[in-house]
Amino acid sequence: MKETEYNINAGRGTEMFHFVYADEDGNGYIDEDYFALGLLGAQFVEPTEEEVIPLPEGASLTMIPNRTPVVINDEDQFVLYPGEGWVMGALLPQGYTRTLLPAFVNHDGAAGLPLFGYAAVFAQDGELYVAATPTDEDYKWNPQYFNTDDLAERVEQLQKQFPENRLLKQLGHCALTYGCFTAQNIFYHRWEGGIPVSPVCNARCLGCISLQPSECCPSPQSRLTFVPTVQEVVELAVHHLKDAEDGIISFGQGCEGDPSMQADLIAEAITQIRQQTDNGTINMNTNAGNTEGIKKIVDAGIDSLRVSLNSGTNAVYNAYYRPVQYTLDQVRQSLRYAADHGVYTYLNLLTFPGINDCTDEVESLLQLVQDNDVKAIQVRNLNIDPETMKPIIDLLQGEPLGVPAFLNILAEELPTVAIGNYTKPFRRKKA
After folding, report:
1. 3-state SS string over the chain?
2. How far apart are CA 252 and CA 282, in angstroms?
């Protein structure tokens, strides 16, 4: 077991929460002889009241094996938990931003964790709490509206309607096997529906959910293996946009690489879609590194562009995205070009406690948003094994402020920028 992986930080003068752990069978327990800690970057810290909320509906508890918890004993010392048990974490529903990671040290040789957004869990007066803060609310993403009893029938019906469309076979698999909400929305005929187009990518993200090296953690879903035809994209998009409630089609979903690598296909598809319907929003989720491809897609008439980003600094960005033949400056150029042409641009900000809230990171993000007229920021919990992020944490120059302070700064310094979690319908402004 490694006992010196992280720095030990003094307490922050807060209300104390009790320690929660799991046994080998995954059963949870509260140990009131020890107080709980969270992890902020590389520092074990006592949670503040601003960082903790009651465990919300839709959150799920998970055991984190082969990791020893770090706790506070009755002498106010930060120590390895001496009892039997594993770390307990929580996976948050959408609309909540994680504030602290579970506090633990790895056992030597421990296998990498699946790609989830682990949040610290605590107890007080017998009730469970989690390190999180609510950042958005939208009934459309409530789990009760998904995975309904009639979903399989809906998948079968739409596949019969378009029997030659390979995208529907892909999306049916994503909907039924992976429980992907944007895939399911295609079959529910409502809201944001995903249309994957690219099996290739120009980045090698550490936390990629569709492609991982064999020595790493398994990807939670498989990547698209083909490039669809323009016809396949158009018939599915038109079907969705014509009369779906608050209809959005989004290129760039979890089961593909970066859609801008198929810029010519998307541009032609947008042209043909708009010849058949003026309804709904055409959106793309992208790393925006392929600036020339982004320009083609913007010129074709896309409505909104959500750019995935973890940092406004080159070192931290490159360490996570590991871009291939593009730079963060090209991402900035893409954002600027899109904004100048009336496209609604927003960030998919991959958020990790102790990284995004560092002083230098905050300053660089504010500058990027202001310089490029970004309209909104989606704060998304970065799904990854915390151990994987340690080399990136080592690159940081500033001190962590805490996630609540980070969100407050964004609200204060960017009063016209929407801060949330969800993609909203938006039609492009005419340049």
Report:
1. CCCCCCEECCCCCCCCCEEEEECCCCCEEEEEEEEECEEECCEEECCCHHHEEECCCCCEEEEECCEEEEEECCCCCEEECCCCCEEEEEECCCCEEECCEECEEECCCCCCCCCCCEEEEEEECCEEEEEEEECCCCHHHCHHHCCCCCHHHHHHHHHHHCCCCHHHHHHHHHHHHHCCHHHHHHHHCEEEEECCCCCCCCCCCCCCCCCCCCCCCCCCCCCCCCCCCHHHHHHHHHHHHHHCEEEEEEECCCCCCCHHHHHHHHHHHHHHHHHHCCCCEEEEEECCCCHHHHHHHHHHCCCEEEEEECCCCHHHHHHHHCCCCCCHHHHHHHHHHHHHCCCEEEEEEEECCCCCCEHHHHHHHHHHHHHCCCCEEEEEECCCCHHHHHHHHCCCCCCECCHHHHHHHHHHHCCCCEEECCCCCCCCCCC
2. 11
Question: Of how many residues is the chain composed?
Answer: 431
The string of pLDDT tens digits covering residues 24-79 is 888 999 999 999 999 999 999 999 999 999 999 989 999 998 899 999 999 999 99
**pLDDT for res 97:** 97
Residues 6+ apart with CB under 8 A from 170: 196, 224, 255
Q: In whole angstroms, what is the distance from residue 130 CA to residue 127 CA?
A: 10
pLDDT digits (tens, 9 = 90+) for 321-348: 999 989 999 999 999 999 999 999 999 9
CATH number for 140-420: choose from 1.10.10.10, 3.55.10.10, 3.90.1150.10, 3.20.20.70.
3.20.20.70
pTM for the model = 0.91
Where, residue-wise, is CATH 3.20.20.70 in the chain? 140-420
